[in-house]
Amino acid sequence: MAKQTALVTGASRGIGRATALRLSAAYDIIAVARSASELASLKSEIEIGGGVCSTIELDIADEKAVRAALSGLEVDVLINNAGVATMKPFLELTSEEWHRMVDVNFNSLYYVTHALIRGMVERKRGFVVTIGSLAGRNSFVGGSCYAATKHAVNGFTESLMLEVRDANVRVAVVMPGSVSTDLTPSSGDPSWKLTSNQIADAVWYLVSQPDSVLVSRLEIRPAKAKASPR
Fold first, then answer.
1. pLDDT digits (tens, 9 = 90+) for 87-121
2. Residues classed as catalytic
3. Total number of domains constituting the chain
4. 50, 87, 102, 145: which has the highest count of C-beta atoms within 10 A?
């Protein structure tokens, strides 16, 4: 039997890259990101491992470009992973920073998911997984926009889940806590944080459940909190 296809956004690095690699043993991968060189590196790594990977260089915040690139693709699993984060007090946040986070973290969910989910509903199969954040249920200083976009992610995914479940299309959100990636670089020892591979394993857990099972929300965090400096 031919493999099913999984499309991963933000696939060039971090959680997206780890997820594409984790899924590549069971799925043909369509890797989407803005960096052609990093996509080429991922494609090479997947193919060395015996998998199949095609790439699409794309800014998912560009609605017209997304529609042109993705409409009509037959995708079985969609991983909405791409995201950006600028953590700073609201009074210091620029309009450009605000709109970029809203566009990438939230508006792109409409662009990408809308381009692909109609085909899932028509075929009566499919799975949409969005990488959210525990910031989607917490608030913190410097997170006025980032946390707001992640709260929006939760509302979007849960509503969509209820809309399409009877068409045998499953929708879920993964909500990681602190992950060691370059999304939010920090100084100090990152060893207490989760890794991208651990989040990829969580995604695999969701999509590998039997068709009759839907884990619609998965929270994952480091087992221990960051140690206080001495």
1. 999 999 999 999 999 999 999 999 999 999 999 99
2. 146
3. 1
4. 145
